[in-house]
Design a protein that fits this description.
By secondary structure, the chain is mostly helical. α2 runs antiparallel to α3. The radius of gyration is 18 Å and the shape is elongated. The termini are far apart.
Length: 99
């Protein structure tokens, strides 16, 4: 139950920050996205290594690392694009109000 509440709260905070126009990644958004994706890939690699006992161990570790890194990168990339689009809409709205 706490699992659902935790991730529900996280999703609410992210959506609310996007709606308000807060920049989720700061000024160096590309490096943050790449570093976060790599960290998720390493964590998946270590977790998968601990519980796996299949013959093609190295191949499966490499596939797990790259697929989780790619999935995390795509998630952060899409989240960043949505955030930047929303910031531009809000800035445009305030610029039109000044005229």
């Amino acid at each position: 139950m706490e699992f659902i509440a935790f991730f529900g709260g996280c999703i609410y905070i992210i959506v609310r920050n996007i709606c308000v126009g807060n920049n989720l990644f700061g000024e160096n958004r590309k490096s943050v996205t790449i570093v976060n994706s790599f960290i998720i890939g390493v964590i998946t690699f270590l977790h998968y290594k601990e519980f796996n006992n299949i013959n093609n161990f190295i191949t499966e570790l490499i596939v797990a690392f790259f697929s989780s890194t790619l999935a995390a990168y795509l998630f952060y990339y899409i989240l960043n694009k949505v955030t930047q689009k929303r910031i531009k809409v809000i800035e445009k709205k305030f610029d039109e109000d000044d005229v």
